Amino acid sequence: MTATQVFTTVVQLLLLWLSISAHEAAHAWVAEKCGDSTARLLGRVSLNPLRHLELFGSVLLPGMVLYIGVPIFGWGRLPYWDYRNFRRPYLHSLLVSAAGPAVNLLLAGLATVAIAVAAPLLGAEARQAGLMTLLVSFMPLDAASAKLAGFPLMFTLVRMATINAFLAVFNLLPIPPLDGGQITLQLLPSSWAEKLAAMRPYGLIIAIALATLPVVSLALTPFYAILSEVISSL
């Protein structure tokens, strides 16, 4: 591997692990605020990746999708909470399920703001590096890209934004056991919820297929357009 390939691979994995850790810690923290301290006792209210990552969803799958040229994504160990301890079980279960994707959206927004600040300060070559990072959804970039002024910072910020936006949409897919599936199960009438719950054993397989096909990426087209405008218009 070239130095550029090593850099882009390592940065994306580190950003993914940070984003997964923030996602899982948000579930745990909101669960505690709603009355259940199970996740706190298990050490899940933490940004330490070792508290959250698991072999397939956090290491093997991200490595495979990077290899085949798909936007990197993954997940951590299943969060733990007991809804019976929540003060308002129905509402608080919805809040806990939504907390993880909400934090990923927040991180994507913060990274976008950082890009808006950094791009004009670093100049035209940095904007070019940012656009190339955004337009090339797979890594590695060519060696010329790494020589652009501001490449390391712009690459990191753009990937921080896109990885978290992707994780938010992926986790909001209405497929159990994903967060969106858990939310959907609560909102549907019981007869429909039972049918959707039957998909749970196959849920992750279906979600991986939707993520590796351009379904999730297509859903993010408006965000990519906004991010491109932020980079190029400053």
Following the backbone from N to C, one meets helices and strands in this order, namely HHHHHHHHHHHH
- Which spans of ≥5 residues are poorly predicted at pLDDT below 50? none
**How would you classify the helix and strand content by structural class?**
mainly alpha
Number of strands: 0
Overall tally of structural domains: 1
Write down the overall geometry.
elongated
Number of helices: 12
For the largest beta-sheet, the strand count, sense and barrel status come to: none
Fraction of residues in H or I helices: over 70%
Radius of gyration: 19 Å
Distance between the termini: 34 Å
Q: Report the portion of residues in β strands.
A: under 5%
Q: Mean pLDDT score, rounded?
A: 91
Which descriptors would you attach to this protein?
single chain; 234 residues; mainly alpha; elongated
Summarize the structure.
This protein is an all-alpha fold and 234 residues long. Helices cover 70% and strands 0% of the residues. α1 packs across α7 (151-171).
Please, could you describe this protein's structure?
With 234 residues, this protein is mainly alpha-helical. The chain has one domain. It has helices at residues 3-33, 38-41, 55-68, 89-122, 124-135, 143-146, 151-171, 179-187, 190-197, 203-212, 215-219, 221-232. The model has no long low-confidence stretch (mean pLDDT 91).
Question: How would you summarize the topology of this molecule?
Answer:
Elements: H1 3-33, H2 38-41, H3 55-68, H4 89-122, H5 124-135, H6 143-146, H7 151-171, H8 179-187, H9 190-197, H10 203-212, H11 215-219, H12 221-232
Helix pairs in contact: 1-3, 1-4, 1-7, 4-5, 4-7, 4-8, 4-12, 5-7, 5-12, 8-9
